[in-house]
Inverse folding.
């Protein structure tokens, strides 16, 4: 059966770097969908369309037998519930990239899509760790030092 791997972490945590290690999977990212739909990776409007597109593509790949990695923040339980509900028939892992906030900010300053630092602070304050009660098959904590 196909497997869904959901990445969780702040902007600049190393999610995309980590996702690139999964060469046997279809890797889908919210940033790439934004770029495709709006020609702007920074655009934060119409998140509903971005995530509808992201999750429907993931479902298509899973239905064709591919394992899928979803590269997006997934910091809040209420936002993860949609993933759990939509992909209930698949094995679902969540991989947490718990990079220290200051390191995320440093990396963030060096990348194409720069997120304001106050936004990273707000996101860090809202971050909720996933639990098996949410419906995950496996929860993996990634060592952020492996991503430097």
């Amino acid at each position: 059966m196909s497997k869904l791997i959901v990445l969780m972490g702040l902007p600049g945590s190393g999610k995309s770097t980590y996702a690139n290690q999964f060469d046997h999977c279809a890797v889908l990212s919210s940033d790439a969908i934004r770029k495709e739909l709006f020609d702007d990776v920074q655009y934060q409007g119409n998140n509903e369309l971005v995530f509808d597109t992201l999750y429907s593509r993931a479902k298509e790949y899973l239905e064709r037998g591919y394992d899928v990695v979803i590269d997006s923040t997934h910091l809040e339980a209420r936002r993860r519930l949609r993933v759990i509900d939509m992909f209930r028939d698949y094995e679902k892992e969540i991989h947490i990239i718990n990079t220290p906030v200051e390191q995320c900010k440093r990396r963030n300053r060096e990348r194409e899509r720069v997120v304001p630092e106050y936004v990273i602070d707000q996101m860090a304050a809202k971050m909720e760790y996933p639990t098996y009660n949410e419906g995950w098959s496996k929860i993996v904590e990634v060592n952020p030092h492996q991503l430097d």
